[in-house]
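Proteins fold reproducibly. Look at a sample protein:
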Amino acid sequence: MVLVKLKKDRESEFQSYQAELEALAEAAGAVVTTVMIQARDRIQGATYLGKGKLEELKHVVAECEPDLVIFDRELSPVQMRNLENILEVKIVDRTGLILDIFSQRARSHEGKLQVELASLEYRLPRLTGKGKEMSRLGAGIGTRGAGEQKLELDRRYIRGRIDDIKRQIEKIRKTRSLHRKQRERSGIRTVSLVGYTNAGKSSIFNALCNRGHASGKEQVEADSRLFQTLDTTTRRIRWNDGRKILITDTVGFIQNLPPNLAAAFKSTFEETLEADLILHVVDISDPNYLDKIEAVDQVLKDLGADKTRTLKVFNKIDLLEGDLNQNNNIYVSALSGTGLDELMEKINEQLNAGEKDN
């Protein structure tokens, strides 16, 4: 695994970024054996790394014989091609790594379409003799060998596939919009959970469903892997006072989310923006939780979310020591159940306020 630490990067931020990259590699199924870091003023245009560090990396690859080398930022097509030629090993950048995780985790038809779209748009400019297998998620990155004529035919095929997927996603988006309008007419209120990946959104979603869903069972899989939730899951739950609401679990955010992925999941994010209340779940036990709050807030701002309809929920208080300074914030532990009653009361209060405003 290779990282570049730029002069402007704060040490704590860089360490967090490195830990996140290692977690992404683990989530994709890779085992990190070696980490190489180069400090530079700026990225080297043609090869990402400086000449000396690149030579050092070449020796490490020859000695360790890894299956792939992971780079910490998105590489340009030129950088990826040059690195593959010099190192003679498969190269995966951060975007490719995230795409690989998404391709493994997507389960619904829409989720698979969204991931395939992002993958094809990312890979199209990086075709260097790769064949039609590029249209299938999970195909090897860096497989060369096709002739120019076949390559151009494959590019045409992939562009056609991209257009076809966009049409399918737009059709799904219109259907979802109709369903949303039907819910609005019925008066059912909606709540969406957002947050940085691995903040515990799915655990809170399950905890609320355990209390209010008819089945009383967990509705989504939740564990410590990054991007465990990709497909939007919506369930109807009933409050103690008889109120029915729809609660939605969504894909987790991450710093520098690849633009292709953000664009592909736009229709999913629209569902979040239209909710009557957005719960921004924060892992309070994370030493860098303030930076991650900022990252999620920025994504929500870019998407046009209404701050007045957003409530921050600080999760994982069971991992903290000492007393919390409440400051009117909502602190919960999805694991132990602490604070969930208070959270449900706050949700009810916010929804009631929203009804009065309307």
Summary: DSSP finds eleven helices and ten strands in the chain.
